[in-house]
Each structure stands twice: as C-alpha cells, then as structure tokens.
Amino acid sequence: MLSVQNVSKTFGGFRALQGVSFDVREGELVGLIGPNGSGKTTLFNCISGALGPSGGSIRFRGEEIAGLTPDAVCHRGIARTFQIPRPFRKLSILENVALAAHFGHMTRESDAGARSRAKDVLRLVGLPADGEARPGLLGAAGLKKLELARALATGPKLLLADETLGGLDFEEIRQAADTLRRIRDEMGITIIWVEHIMATLMRVVDRVVVLDHGEKIAEGPPRAMAEDPKVIEAYLGEKIALG
Amino acid sequence: MDPILIAEAAINGILLGGVLALLALGLNLIFGVVDIIWIAYVELVMLGMYAVYWLVTAYGWPLPLAALGSVALVTVLGLLVHLLIIAPILSSPPVNQLLATGGLLFFLQSFATFLWATDHRSLRLALPILEVFGMFLSFARLLAFAMSILAMLGLYLFLTRTYMGTAIRAVSQDREAMALMGADTRKVYLVTSGIGGAMAGLAGALLIIQYSVHPHFGAAFGPLTFMICVLGGLGNMIGAVVASLLMSEVISVGGIITSTEMAYVVAFVIFIVAIFVRPEGILGRRE
Predict the structure, then answer these.
(1) Helix %, strand %, coil % of chain B (to 5)
(2) For a surface tag, which of A169, A202, A236, B237 has the fewest beta carbons within 10 Å of its beta carbon?
C-alpha cells in the first residue's frame, strides 16, 4: 500500500533522513520507533506532504506522492495526527471534525453529510457527539481523541498516528491503544504509529520499523525487535518484557 | 456646550464607526488568514470611490448599480493583488511583504494622480438631512452605516455558517493543520482576498456619498484603519469593531468639543498609550 524507497531529507547541512526504505501492506498496524531526533516526525511530514523529501520515492497505492501538497496527499487517503494536539481552538469540537469531513474528500460532502459523519467519528473515538463545546474544555486525553477524530473524518486509508499516548494515564493509554486497534480491525484503516510507550506499542502492532539518526536500523516483528541488540543499544536501553 | 450638539456628534461617531469597522474588518480578515498586512488597502477603497464617481458622472449609471460596479471591480483587484503581488512573496520575510504592499500604495496613488490629477471630486448628491429631536443627521451617513452593518452581518454569517468561511477561520488559526485536513490553502487565501476586495469596494461606495475623492484619500483613512486594527488586536474581528467605535467617537465628539485636528491628535495619543499598556490590543489575548 505504501512504499517508501530511499527517502532522505536534509535541512541545510543536517541529514534528518538518510536512505530510509520500508513497505507497509494494506491492513497492517506498523510501529515506527526510535530515539528523539531520529527522524520519525520528519518522515511523517514527508509522507503527509508538509515537507518535500530531498530524495527518494514515496508511492501510495501505486502512485508517487512525494512532493504533493498536503491537501492533495489528504485527498489520496492519508491522514495524520500531531504529537501535540493542534485543534482549532476558536471553533467548536464538532466544527473541527466537520471541516475535516467536508474538505478531506475529493468530492465534497453535503453540509448534513459531513456533520453526521463528524458525529459518527466523535462517537467512535469516545467524545460527546453534540460537540458544541470548544476544544479548550478537553483535557489531554480528550484533545488526543479530537486529533484522532479529525484525522479519521477525512476518510483515510492510511493513518499516520504521532504519539497518541503521550501525557495520558494508565487507563487512558489502554483505551487509546484499544481505539487504534479497533480503527484497524473494524474500519480496515492501515496505521503507522509513532510511539514512545514501548510496552503498549509492542503489544498492539504487527511489525516495527526502527529509526536512529535518520536511518532505518531494523525492521521486524515486535518480539524480535525487542531482543535485537542494535535496537536495544540505540533505543530501548534494556530489554522489555512483553506480556 | 449644547448637549444636543454632543448627542449629534456621538451619533455621527457611531455612523462613522460603522464604515471604519467595515474597512478594519476587511484588512483584519486578510491579515488574520494570509498573515500579510495590505498597507495599500485604503488605496483600493480610493479606486472604488473613483469607480462610483466616474460610473455615475461620466456614464450616468444609477448610484446603486455604480456601487455594485465598485464592489465587482475592487473584488477583482483584490484577487489580482493576491495573485500578482502577495502569492509570490508569501514565505518572504515580513519586511519584504511590507515593502511590496507599501510599493503598491505609492503606485496606486501616483497612478491615480496621473490619470485624474489631484482634484477633489465629489458626487454632489442632494441627499436629505433628517432632523430628529433637534439633531441633524445626514441620510448619506445613515445609509452608509446601515449598509456597513448589513455587510458585516453577511460576513459573520459566511464565516460561521459555511464550510469555506469556517475553513477561513481555521486557516487563521493553523494553516498547516487545515491543509492536512484536505483544504487547499491557496484557494482559501484567494477567497479571503476576494472578500477583502469586495469589502473595500463597498466601503468605497459608502464613502463617496459622504466625502470627496482624491488620489491621497488613503492618507487620512489608511493610518486610521491600520491603527484601529492594531488597537483592536490584529486579526481580532470583534476587537476591530470595538476599536472602530472608540476611535470614531473620539474623533467625532472630540471634534465638536475642540477641533477636528485636535481630535485626531487625541485619537493617536490614545492609540500610542494603549499600545504601551496593552500591546496585544484592547481585546487581544496573549496566546
């Protein structure tokens, strides 16, 4: 479904990504991990069109998407969430999601259509569907849900989820991870998930891609990655026990 | 001092405030969304005034039709300003953007002087003066105020009830996030610039029925409009309306008590003091 080939990105003299290649199959839930500054968010930015890669190719469902504008990438079926939620704070929660539902599709939905789908998505992520309140009333967990709702409302086939668990408590983490899995299982949306909370990520994902200093250093099933000496040295620090 | 005169000045202040608010909203909308200050905004208003003037005097158009002509013309000018001048320098440093729109200001002033000389041109309409409770109110000002309120109401409904309007508000908060949600920001900018132009064209039509037009018309209203935007908090629409009313009251009532010149001095002193006390604008909030 997504094929990242030899992608690099330099900022001035700094190489944020160097020759990164990996594939994601339809329906997969792939974890993307690595230390801070390893290039995870830069890679998301290149895929979503916020940044043009300096080199390499990104193909989505057979079509080259590297260098397309973010709205064009969105219309082809890729949505992303931000690590730090970025809601439109002066709009209501429902307006936030309805905008995504309306503009996210190639063929614009009618007013009623976009609103009703926005409400469906709000229910799915566990937010009140009337949604007339402003995002300012939501706590950390609520803002993460809103971020996810906006991404889902664009009707994506591939979701790039950036640290959906950061700042959440134990119970919220369990719920959020469960929501991601349901999005994949019930809606059939392929997911690439960047996360620092390893124990949770490793339990949920099918496969892990590990970045370090802008390069892919390993790729494989979670259990193998958790025991890979290169991954432990670069990132994990110590072995983690998988439930 | 006669209280009737003060009351009359206060009402005139509100009436002037309506048109100033229309101008400030147009400038503020563009700034809030595109993040560029159109220094030459009131020069577009000036062209709208000339458009109405010539359509009425030279071509004999009825005034309402000429007003629509001004709205249409300046809408197109707004789109052209965006496409030809703003779009290529969107990611340039702010100083360059300021110089570019400032350059447009001098270009339009000089071009108007070249075409129409520096004569002050007025429609010389014989619009009635209404007497209400001993106060004399100009029908032209009442009309301009009413039209401004209608236009602002229309803008409000557009910004809150339509997807494009909501997207315009969203882009003013986070343009990158809006693009990732599938909105073409270039189109949002273009629509915003067109609306800004339409409001300038309407303001031109509302001003030419009250004032005479000349190439340096913007010298009086330009700084005033800009000052109102800053005072209300750049990009803050409600702040712009409040600041418009405040400034127009100071100018109108102050003008009766002292002199028009002194009232402008007081208005600008209030502005300077306010900027020291509340740099984010009277209704601005630090974010």
Answers:
(1) 75, 5, 20
(2) A169
Q: Looking at the structure, do residues A59 and A174 belong to the same domain, yes or no?
A: yes
Contact B166 A71 (CB under 8 A): no
The count of structural domains within chain A is 2
Domain interval for residue A117? 89-143
Residue B235 CA: distances (Å) to CA of B45, B187, B215, B280: 20, 19, 28, 11
Q: What would the two tokens of residue A147 be? A: 């971020």
- Judge if A120 and A63 occupy the same domain: no
> Mind telling me how many Å the CA of B182 is from chain A's nearest CA?
4
Taking only the tens place, the pLDDT of each residue in B52-86 is 999 999 999 999 999 999 999 999 999 999 999 99
| Domains of chain B, first to last | 3-277 (1.10.3470)
CB within 8 Å: A74 and B182: yes
Distances (CA, A) of A58 to A6, A12, A63, A114: 9, 22, 8, 30
Q: Cβ contacts (< 8 Å) between B185 and chain A: which residues?
A: 71
Sheet with A14-24: list strands edge to edge.
A14-24, A2-11, A55-60, A63-64
A36, A69: one domain: yes
Per CB-CB distance under 8 Å, the chain B contacts of A114 are 163
Is residue A176 situated within a structural domain? yes
Q: Give the pair of three-digit tokens for residue B9.
A: 């000045």
Both tokens of A90, joined, read 């002066």
User: Is A154 within 8 Å of B174 when comparing Cβ atoms?
Assistant: no
Same domain, yes or no, for A73 and A160? yes
Residue B34, Cβ density class (10 Å: 0-12 exposed, 13-18 middle, ≥19 buried): buried
Count CB-CB contacts under 10 A for residue A222.
20
A127 within some domain: yes
State which of A102, A118, A143 marks the end of a domain.
A143
Q: The whole model's pTM is what? A: 0.86
In order of A148, B203, B231, the CA distances from B20 in angstroms are 42, 8, 13
State the nearest Cα–Cα gap between B282 and chain A, in angstroms.
18
For an interface test with B, which of A82, A83, A102 has the most B Cβ atoms less than 10 Å from its Cβ?
Answer: A102
Q: What is the pLDDT of residues A34-85, one digit of tens each?
A: 888 889 999 999 999 999 999 999 999 999 999 899 999 999 999 999 888 8
Up-side HSE of residue B245: CA atoms within 13 Å toward CB?
12
Model ipTM over 0.85: no
CB contact under 8 A, B181 and A100: yes
Residue A82 within any structural domain of the chain: no
- B162: closest chain A residue by CA: A111
Judge: A79–B179 Cβ closer than 8 Å, yes or no: no
- Alpha carbon of A99: minimum distance to chain B alpha carbons (Å): 7
Does residue A188 lie in a domain region? yes
